Amino acid sequence: MRALWLAEGGEFVPPGAGDFNLPPIFLGITKPMVLVVLSIVIISVFFLIASRRLKVVPSRFTFIAESVYDFGRNNIARELIGSKDFMPYVPLIVAMFTFVLVNNLFGIIPIIQFPTLAHIGFPMALSVLIIYPLWNYIGIRKHGLFGHFKHQLVPPGVPKPVLVLLVPVEIFVKFIMNPITHGIRVFAAMFAGHLILLVFTLAGEYLLLEAGGALKPVSVISWAFAIAMTFLEALIQVLQAYIFALLAANFIGSALSEEH
Amino acid sequence: MSAILLAQEASLNQGLSLIGYGLGAIGPGIGVGLIFAAVINGTARQPEAQSKLMGIAWQTFVLVEVLALIGLVLFFIASAK
């Protein structure tokens, strides 16, 4: 919107971080808030409808829901947490996967067109307020307070002088950078992807309407690239959802693993 | 005269941060190339291992890609006037 009215002077204004500040719809409720609630409604309704009247041989719709659940349970949770005690964490992993997936896919659905995780607050809440305290809680519950830190910071078989260097590095990586990069990964991917789509789309619109006659056909090339980047963006979005759930399961598994 | 005066007010932040991002994207670019080169080599030696190799490839790709993405985010932060 900002780019549109500024471009009337004839100068192309490239989209920037300001284009992510959507104005409130009413009463201070903004579009990303509505989209997050919508994503939860979609996911809940999907699983609730699919799990009514379960039969031994599933129907097609139930099969899709079961595939999503099996993917989160077998490929993500059981692989990374271990087959002994992964079951309590399967709902969390499936919830993380589907939540990030649906919110990411909002970025390429025509009317919605905004990946909610491109606002830094949403993925940081997921990683710093949910996964990180849970990881600490699981580790402290299993190994005790001191045992959790020892388990994470002191790998077995390391000579004492190396520990002087290793422990501060491990504190920085595991207790500060891991939760931060867990959230920043998906935020930066969605931010960059949305910006790429904005650049090609707005550039095509500018070339068609504002630029000189010889440049007008170039807008078609710009929009063709926008379509190509949309497909790449779809791949990145699904991948980022998978990786978010995978890393969450990885952290839980590392807190639960036995002493070697 | 006024152009020179205006030029003295311009900050180099945007240009420098763009150079910084470009330099910072060298490492992840090489890293992603190495990952998928290993996948191609492994698949060439043993085609049955392709699905397992691609699974590992996507997991490590995201770890390498986040460095380039952090660079992009820092570009926007650093390019403020």
Largest interface: A-B, 15 and 11 residues
- pLDDT averaged residue by residue of chain B: 87
Number of strands of chain A: 0
Architecture per CATH nomenclature, i.e. the level-2 architecture of chain B: Up-down Bundle
What's the number of structural domains of chain B? 1
- Count of structural domains of chain A: 1
Q: Could you name the CATH topology of chain B?
A: F1FO ATP Synthase
Q: How many whole angstroms does the radius of gyration of chain B measure?
A: 20 Å
Strand content of chain B: under 5%
Task: Tell me what portion of residues of chain A adopts beta-strand conformation.
Answer: under 5%
| Gyration radius over CA of chain A | 23 Å
Main structural class of chain A = mainly alpha
Helix content of chain B: over 70%
The computed structural class of chain B is mainly alpha
Uncertain stretches of 5 or more adjacent residues of chain A = none
General form of chain A: globular
If you average the pLDDT of chain A, what whole number results?
A: 89
Q: What composes the largest sheet of chain A?
A: none
Q: Could you give the order of the helices and strands of chain B? A: HHHH
Beta-strand segment tally of chain B: 0
Task: Describe what you observe in this structure.
The complex is a heterodimer of chains A (260) and B (81). With 260 residues, chain A is an all-alpha fold. Chain A has 8 helices and no strands. Chain A has one domain (19-256). Chain B has 81 residues and is mostly helical. Chain B contains 4 helices and no strands. The longest helix of chain B has 29 residues, at 50-78. Chain B has a single domain, classed as F1F0 ATP synthase subunit C (F1FO ATP Synthase). The interface between A and B is medium-sized, with 15 and 11 residues.
